[in-house]
Amino acid sequence: MGLRDLVYGAYGRRIETSLAPTDVPRHVGVILDGNRRWAKAYGEQPAEGHRKGADKIHELLGWCEEVGVEVVTLWLLSTDNLNRPPDELAELMEIIENAVRDLAATRRWRVHPVGALDLLPEHTARVLKESEAATSDIHGVLVNVAVGYGGRREIADAVRSLLQEHAGRGTSIEELAEVLDVEHISEHLYTRGQPDPDLVIRTSGEQRLSGFLLWQSAHSEFYFCEAFWPDFRKVDFLRALRDYAVRHRRYGA
Fold first, then answer.
1. How many domains does the chain have?
2. Is 196 a domain residue?
3. Residue at 108 is within a domain
4. For 168-193, how does the pLDDT look when each residue is reduced to its tens digit (9 = 90+)?
């Protein structure tokens, strides 16, 4: 371990000890951005960047466990990403499948897929469902793996599910319109029953949500980090928590 690592380690411990339990967000969403640019910067193929990014997930979840985060949502693949060249997409799907299997195999975290699974290759969708079933009895951090995820698609799916439910009850459109409120839609989101994200972190320096948890992040705090996802360090995570802790959350005010 070099001097720089020792200094960052001490700095990180100082930040961590300054955080009160009440300062820690219950739900953290993370946009794992910058894998391809990391690979380009190091002269590697895109797949190597995605592999390095997948390896980082275990570290992040360990950090979340240490400070008491209850729910983590990881955006691994957007619906837009499904339009990538077939060869690249096939490699990416294999990396995601392996990453999710590895998460389930640790028996530390409860895996919950969020996204339009019907848009994914059959094998990928099956791996996600099997990993969820295999970890359903785990009481650790709940890990939402967002694969084939798009915020607009989620809201559309929620409304579709709501309409189908009420149609099955014989409720007319007019009757539904009379009583419809935001909670009705929330109950049909991919993350139904979970707390909304308190903090959303995006790596790679981009400062936009790109459709991540559009509905749920209405009152979230955002933290944008310059590091590409494979280079994201514990000290970067702790800085995000420190930044969150000093904000005065206004909840839309």
1. 1
2. yes
3. yes
4. 999 999 999 998 999 999 999 999 99
